[in-house]
Write the structure tokens for this entry.
Amino acid sequence: MVIKLETVLVEIEGPVATISLDRPEKKNAMNPQMHADMNAALDEIEAAGGVKVVVVTGNGDSFSAGMDLEECFLRPYEDPMLFYRTNLVALRWFQR
């Protein structure tokens, strides 16, 4: 089964799920959309049932440059609630 989200691709084959980060033009830096997509990807994997291993990889020439500083920190800096909500989504899938 293949599931294409805006910034990640999920492939489930039996007990193995592969999540491919898909923002190669940004070195797969994690922006708010990718954090939301990671939560959705994990939801899909849980719903599929039977997955024992999740592999996370990156499309292009980089795994991930880390957080997209502009979108996750600079843009919401002046709005504390937006900053909080943006980072709360990231923390949700990190904890899973």
In short: The chain has a mean pLDDT of 92. The chain has three helices and four strands. The beta strands are 2-4, 8-13, 16-21, 53-58. Residues 53 and 70 are 32 Å apart (CA to CA).
